[in-house]
Each structure stands twice: as structure tokens, then as C-alpha cells.
Amino acid sequence: MRVIDLINNSKSTAFSFEILPPLKGNSIQKVYNVIDKLKEFDPKYINITSHHSEFIYKTLPDGSFQKVNIRKRPGSVAIASAIQNKYGITAVPHIICKGFTKDETEYALIDLNFLGVHDLLLLRGDIKTLEAKPNAEIYHEHATDLQKQINNFNKGIALDGSTFEANETPFSYGMACYPEKHEEAPNMESDIFYLKEKVKNGADYLVTQMFFDNEKYYSFVDRCRAEGINVPIIPGIKPIVFKNQLTVLPKVFRSDIPEPFAAELRKCKTDEEAKIVGIEWCIQQCKDLIAHNVPSLHFYTMMASDSVYKVAKEIY
Questions:
Q1: What pLDDT digit, counting tens, does each position of 6-27 carry?
Q2: Domains of the chain (ranges plus CATH)?
Q3: Which of 135, 142, 251, 274 could form a disulfide with 268 if both were Cys (CB 3.0 to 4.6 A apart)?
């Protein structure tokens, strides 16, 4: 069943979460441990992030430096299949533009179809660790370009223009949105214009960047609805677990932290204190969202699976 159907058919606010593939060479058991911890809350789907290669500089024995391209977390396609087969829960691998060629994307789609994984989340991906502007002939520039490739694949049109028998089960997908505006958008109006294009061209639902101020989410949803964007807009939620996230998260993700929350975090002397404050804020944030009848809550679990468990225990 498609993610959009799982969300729409849920009798109450649906629960889902995102996991990272293990670091290269590590066991998938770490992934299973997170799922085993959270599966009691009946997750409707589980997202698996994708990570592109990045350049690092390796120190050689003679003291010189060598530029090396590495990929720290491969395996999103295989992990999505493993999760879906082991748990019977819909797996949603991220398909990203940055760091992946158009050909690599097509190969991933072929493999996912063979493996019975037909739900995707389409994203541009992080550009901060990419060294140079990639060749536009080889790489997609925007998530909307990636969207066109998926749509063509669903029609049985390959990247080279040749045709094939279209999948019996076409890929369905969600895409990202930003209640506090994408960092590169010139203004919110422009951001919503492109968001409307995503939906018009086939996005079944939207998942937000993490936010901590529900009023900004409600305002964003109202603006989207006024523009005719009527697909589910899923709140992306992350409990704060470290003191330094008070300044790191706004810098990295452009997510404001409301002053009442920030004031409580500033009082914390340890990460453990900050974790407790983060859990309590997240519980109240989620209760308020549920009271406003959001269709689903989507949790980002990176370094926060214990906190997500405690939050989910209170609201589900």
C-alpha cells in the first residue's frame, strides 16, 4: 500500500520515522535495534536516508595531502528491501540529486522495482560537502528535475529515451517542504511556487524540515492551502538531545527555536538535562499538532531514538 494511502487510511495521527544506513562496514543490526525499539507504535512507514560521496583530504606518510572521494553510508536500497521483508513495514528510501548521477538513479529504480520497494522520498540533497558544481548533463540540479526522471520511468521511458514495459506497480513519492523557507529561496512566495509545481507534477504528500515552533507550521500550511496545495503536509519532528543543538540546529537547518524553549535549554548544564527538556518540549509540541488533526508525525531519529521512544510513549 502506498504511503499516501497508509496516511489517509490511518484512524488517528499516523507515526513514522527516519533512520540512517549504518556506516560503511558496520552491521545492519544497529538499524534493526532502532526499529525494534519503535515498532510498538505501529509505524506506517520507515524512511531510509541516502548519502552521497564527499571529498576529504588524507594525510600521506610524507606529510602531503591527497584528495579522496569517499561515501560513508552506502546501502539505502538494500536496507530498504531488508526492512520491508523483515518487518512487513513499508520502506521509503530517499532518492537524491546531489552526488548521484542520473544513471545511478535509474539503476536504483530498476533495483528497487525488482525488490518490491515502490515508495520514495525525492530530495535535492545536501550540497555542503560537495566540492564543485556538478555537470548538469550528468547530475540533476533540483528535486523537480529528479521528479521528471521518476515520472518518465513510471511511463516506461528510460533515461536514454528508449522505452520499456512500465512497472506493474509505479513508484509513488513524497517530497520536502520548508515551513521557515528553504535557505536558498529568495522569499516564501517563490518557495511555495515551486512547492506547488512539485505537487502538480505528482508528489503525493510533503514532509517538512524539522521545526520547533508549531505556529510557523500552521501558518505555512494555511499559505499552502490558499495556493491550492491540498496534499498532506507531514510535520517533521526531532527532539533536541544535546546542549549545543540550541545553536547548531538553527545554523545547519535554519530552524528557529522559540524563546521559551531556548530559555529552558540555556539553563541546562549537561546534555542529559538538555535531553530531558527536549523530550518534554517535543511531547507538548506533538500533542498540540495532534490536537490540530495533523495526518501524521514523522520523527528524525539520528542520535535521538531513545528520546523519540519516550515521546511516542506519551502520545501514541
A1: 999 999 999 999 998 877 767 8
A2: 3-315 (3.20.20.220)
A3: 274
